[in-house]
Amino acid sequence: MLKQLFLAAFLALSANVQADITTENRVYPYQNTALTPEERAHDLVKRLTREEKVALMQNSSPAVERLQIKPYNWWNEALHGVGRAGLATVFPQSIGMAASFDNVLLYDVFTAVSDEARAKTRLAREEGNYDIYRGLTFWTPNINIFRDPRWGRGQETYGEDPYLTGQMGMAVVRGLQGPEDAPYDKAHACAKHFAVHSGPEWNRHSFNAEDVALRDLWETYLPAFKDLVTKAHVKEVMCAYNRYEGDPCCGSDRLLVQILRNEWDYQGIVVSDCGAVDDFFKPGRHGTHSTREDASAHAVLSGTDLECGSAYRGLVNALNEGKIKEEDIDRSLVRLMKARFELGEMDASTPWDSIPATVINSKKHQNLALEMTRKSLVLLENDKGILPLKPGTKVALIGPNANDSTMQWGNYNGFPGHTVTLHEGMKASIAPDKYIYNKVCDHTQESSLDINAMLDIVRDAEVVIFAGGISPRLEGEEMPVEVPGFRGGDRESIELPQVQRLALKALKEAGKRVVLVNFSGSAVGLVPESDNCDAILQAWYPGQAGGTAIADVLTGRYNPAGRLPVTFYKDVSQLPDFQDYSMKGRTYRYFQDTPLYPFGHGLSYTTFRYGKAKADAKKLPAGHTLTLDIPLKNSGKMDGEEVVQVYIRRLADTDGPIKSLRAFKRVTLRAGEKQNVQIELPAEAFETFDTGTNTMRVLPGEYDIMYGGTSDSKALRHLSVTLE
Fold it and tell me: N or C: which end of the chain has fewer CB within 10 A?
C-alpha cells in the first residue's frame, strides 16, 4: 500500500516540476528539481556568504531566509526505533537484535523505523518544528567492535565480530535509506564511530589508540565500516572522540583522507561526534591544537564536513586569518547541501510525505517488535529440561528487573505506547492461583534484600523465575554513576551484582528450582549462577514487547533460537586490560581460554543434527564463489529454528584469528524435517591479513571451513578447501 502511495505521489510531483520552476519563488537553478542534487548544491553554495556557509556546517543549521533555506537540525537518533521524539515503536536494543542473527528481519525493522521517521518529520514540518530529533539524518548504526564487555556503550553495537557487525549494519542502512533508485532518499544513516573506538567512556576525550597493530586495524576495527561505505553506500560517517596514532579521529588524515576518501572512495558526509572538535583544544583533553580556529580549520581540511557542537563558529576567523581557504569550506558545504537535496528537505514536498502518521507504533510495527524480541532471546542453560515450564506449574517471579519498563528500553530510545514488562507477560500467561510476584531486591543495594522474607514469599512455588541483571541506568554513555563495580557508564566488574548473587545462592540452598532471566546490554559473568540456576535466559534490553516475548519462551509458546553476538567470559580475570586495544586474548577470534558461553552459543527446545557438507569445488581458482551444501535435520520433537554458522581459518596463518565467522543463515525446520542449507562463500570470505603488504587479501593455500550452530570448536564440523 505504501509503495502504491509513493508511486502515485511521485508521478503527481513529477508532473508539477516544470510548473514549480516557473513560479515566483523558483528562480534559481538550485530550486530546479530537474537538476541533480549535486548540481543544485553547487549553485546554492556559490550564493552564500562566508558567515552563512559556516553556520550551515553546524548541526543546528539556521535558516537563510533570503535564499529560502529552511532551518535544519542534523542530529537525530534511531538506534532501535526513532529516538527521543515522543511516541515510537521501541525494538530491542541493538545488541539484542544482533543476537537474532537475522539481517533480513533487521532490514524489515529499519524499514518500519524509516516509515515512522518520515511520518514524524512531516508532522513536525507541518507544525513548523525544526528542533533537534525532528530531521531525517539519523546517527545510527553504531558499528564499533564490542571488544570488551566492560564498555557501557557496547549495548548499542552488533557485537564482537566484524562480519556479523557488517551484515547487520548494512541491513540497518538499507532499511533507513530506502531504495537507491528512489527519486528522494528516505532517510540518511550514519556509520559511527570511526574508528578504533570502544571504551572506556571516562577517558574518551583524551585517549590515544596509538599501539593498534595494522592487523587489528584492518581485520577487526575497519571491515564493518568498509562494508557500510562500499556496499550499502551509507550517507554519513561519524568520526570518534579518541585519537588514533596521535591525531584526533575527527582530524585524522590517515582515517578520513587516506582510507575513507581515497581508498574507499567515500563521497558522503563526515560528521563529528558531539563536542569532538572541542577536544582538540580544550584543557585536559587531546591538546593537539591551541585555539578553536586552529582546531576547526584542521578538522575541515581533514574531511570533517559537519560539526556537532560550536567549535566551527571559529571558521570565519580561520578564513580571515588564512588558516583555511573558502574553497575548502565549499567542498564540505556542497556535500551537506547535496544531502539535503537528496532527502527532499529543501523542497516543498516529496513522495515519502504520503506515509501516514498511523504507521507510528502501528499494530504491524508492534507485531514486528514482538517477532524481533522473540528472535533475540538466547537460552544459555536448560538443566534437565526445566524449560519450557510445564502447564500447571506454580511460579514465583521475583527480582529487580521483573517489572521495570524503562530498563527494557535500553538507551537512545523512543517512547512506546505501552511496554509489556515480564510481570505483565507472565501474569497474562499463568493462572492467578499459580502465580506469585514480588520484587524482593533492587539491582545493587545489599540492604534491599531480606533473605528470610524472600524465601517465605517463594515457599509454595515449584519454580522461581529471578529477573536479574543490570540496567541502562548503570551502563551506557559517559554516565555519572557512583556504584561499586561501575565507572562512568562502564563496568569495572562484569559479575552479577552481589545482592543478586546472594539471593540466587539462598534460593539454591533452600532447594528451589531457579530460572534466571538476565537483562543486560553486555556479557555478564555468571559463575556460580551457571551452577546455582537450573536455566538461564539472556534477555538483553528487549524493548516494548519484552514481557510477552520472554513469557512466550518460558511457557513454550515460542522455541528460542537466539545466539550470542559476544563471548560470555567467566569473570573479569579472563580479560586483558580495558585500555589495551590489541585483540590478543579478546573475543572468540583470539581468546585462548575456555569461556563460560562462547560466541554463537544458544540452546533450543529441540535438537539439530548436521550432516557432512559438500562443496562445489575443493580447489578454487581466484575469484571463485564456493557453494556449501550443509545437510541439517531437526532431530527433536518440537518445531524450531537453527542458526547455521560458517567459520574459516587459513591454516598457514599462525598469527591470525583462531576462526572467523564468514556466513550465517537462520533457518526454520519442523520436527523431524531435513533440509539442505545452501551457503555461498564469495572470494572475499577468504580474505586474511597479508603481512607482506599490510593489506587484506585472498592468499593461496589451504583453508579450514568449520560449520555448525556455535563457534565452539568441539561442536563444529570441518571441510578443507585449497585456494590456488
Answer: N
Q: Residue 16: what pLDDT?
A: 43
Check residue 20 and give its pLDDT: 40
Residues of the chain predicted below pLDDT 50: 1-3, 5, 7, 10-24
Position 25 scores a pLDDT of 53
3-state SS string for 450-519: CHHHHHHHCCCCCEEEEEEECCCCCCCCCCCCCCCCEEECEECCCECCHHHHHHHHHHHHCCCEEEEEEE
Contact by Cβ (8 Å): 131, 576:
no
DSSP state of 62: P
Global pTM?
0.96
Check whether the bond before 388 is cis (ω within 30° of 0).
yes
Pick the CATH number of 35-359 from 3.20.20.300, 3.90.940.20, 3.30.110.40, 2.40.128.20: 3.20.20.300
Query: How crowded is residue 699: how many other Cβ atoms within 10 Å of its Cβ?
Result: 16
Percentage helix, strand, coil, to 5, in the chain?
Answer: 35, 20, 45
Distance, in Å, from the CA atom of 315 to the CA atom of 311, rounded to the nearest integer, reads: 8
Place of cell 591454516: 651
Domain 608-723 listed as CATH 2.60.40.10 = yes
Concerning whether 273 is annotated as a catalytic residue, the answer is yes
- Supply the pLDDT for residue 27: 82
Active-site entry in 102, 273, 307, 534: 273
How many CA atoms, within 13 angstroms, populate the side-chain half-sphere of residue 406?
3
What pLDDT digit, counting tens, does each position of 637-688 carry?
A: 999 999 999 999 999 999 999 999 999 999 999 999 999 999 999 999 999 9
Q: How far apart are CA 331 and CA 346, in angstroms?
A: 19
Specify the CATH superfamily of domain 365-590: Glycoside hydrolase family 3 C-terminal domain (3.40.50.1700)
Check if 475 is active-site.
yes
Say how far apart CA 568 and CA 527 lie, in whole Å.
Answer: 11
Q: Which of 160, 201, 247, 475 is the catalytic position? A: 475
